[in-house]
Amino acid sequence: MPDSYLACDGENVLIKVKDEIRFRVPVHNLEGIVCFGFAGASPKLMYLCCERGVSLSFLTKYGNFMGRVTGSVSGNVLLRRTQYRWSDDEEVSSRLSQRFITAKIINSRAVLHRALRDHTKVVDTKSLEEAINYLARMPERLEKASNGNVIRGIEGEAAHIYFSNFNQLILSQKDGFCMSGRTRRPPTDRINALLSFLYTMLAHEVVAALESVGLDPQVGFLHRDRPGRPSLALDIMEELRPHFADRLAVTLINRNQINAGGFTVKENGAVLMDSDTRKEVLTAWQKRKQEEITHPYIEEKIPLGLVPYVQALLLARHMRGDLEDYPPFFWK
After folding, report:
1. Domains, in order of start, for the chain
2. What is the pLDDT of the chain when averaged over all its residues?
3. Alpha-carbon distances, residue 116 vs 49, 119, 122, 256 (angstroms)
4. What is the dihedral of CA 332, 248, 279, 39, to 10 degrees?
5. Which pLDDT score, from 0 to 100, does residue 151 have?
6. Residue 80, class by beta-carbon neighbours within 10 Å (0-12 exposed, 13-18 middle, 19+ buried)?
């Protein structure tokens, strides 16, 4: 709500609208708070969040990141110095970039394969089979990639093939939800608006996970340094997008949990979600994080919401020398 304001009462976080308390939750029940639009927050609440390790992020109504309030930086300085050295090493950066993108391509292929397997009678089987087979050959090309630019080129090619078939995944509300290609800043159709929103939420989770294990979210290997960009978080996100965000977007549409009427098209062509749709998506996001999976590397059952933390921890262990290589997340 545009008139909402965040405050606190003791150990409780409050949401107020025109001085009326609409919501109250104990701070120890929260991992993070994300504010959309220009909702205000009291300095006392910011202090509470910093003290309790609850990240407080501010996004525009378009879902673009504006800023984040966190407590003191934690983590081993030796680990971060290793991270910075590795980021400047082309060979190491290329090897890790190969791991991130290989997982992304394999996980994207799994999303398409699932649609082909479960809905053979209503999808274009030839198009999906061609895309699946093409993506299957790409990891071998990645292993031979000589530098980051080649890897980024292969990633772009894979993304084009994947998103060219994304409409095949939409089985309901096809007229209202149709993608003509991946567009951002701003998204120009409802699917892109939904995906951008979910990617923003995923970025928030990954940044928090990286900081919790002592890594610097700003210094990556595939995504190069740029002021204000969480490059390492974007690196880790690559392998998580298909399973975390893309599948959830498809589910929300196909189960009619959201509809085309919940989006607004602006004069400049930008597409925005309304507050009710955003609330529905956020509720589904939180439920999805609670789903249990068996992590493919540690082979333990964990909530899906812990996967970013596990991947951050595995990367930190690799940098410390406890693991020979970084094991990316593969969705089985």
Report:
1. 4-69 (3.100.10.20), 77-320 (1.20.120.920)
2. 86
3. 45, 6, 9, 21
4. 80
5. 93
6. middle
> Which one-letter DSSP state was computed for residue 242?
I
What is the residue whose two structure tokens read 């309901």?
A: 172
What is the DSSP code (8-state) at residue 190?
H
Q: For residues 220 and 280, what is the distance between their CA atoms, to the nearest angstrom?
A: 32
Q: Is 82 helix (H, G, I), strand (E, B) or coil?
A: helix
Tokens coding 226: 């740029």
**CA angle (169 as vertex; 194, 252 as ends), nearest 5:** 40
Distance CA 209, CA 203 (A): 10
b/e 25-46 (16+ beta carbons within 10 angstroms → b): eebeeeebbbbbeebebeeebb
Low-confidence ranges of the chain (pLDDT < 70): 1-2, 31, 36-39, 59-66, 71-75, 184
Using a 10 angstrom Cβ sphere, with 0-12 exposed, 13-18 middle and 19 or more buried, the burial of residue 158 is buried
pLDDT confidence of residue 279: 87
Q: Exposed, middle or buried by CB within 10 Å (0-12, 13-18, 19+), for 178?
A: middle
Model confidence, pTM: 0.80
For 296-301, the CB contacts below 8 A with 24+ separation are 296/329, 296/330, 296/331, 296/332, 297/327, 297/329
Q: Which residues pair with 265 in a beta bridge?
A: 271
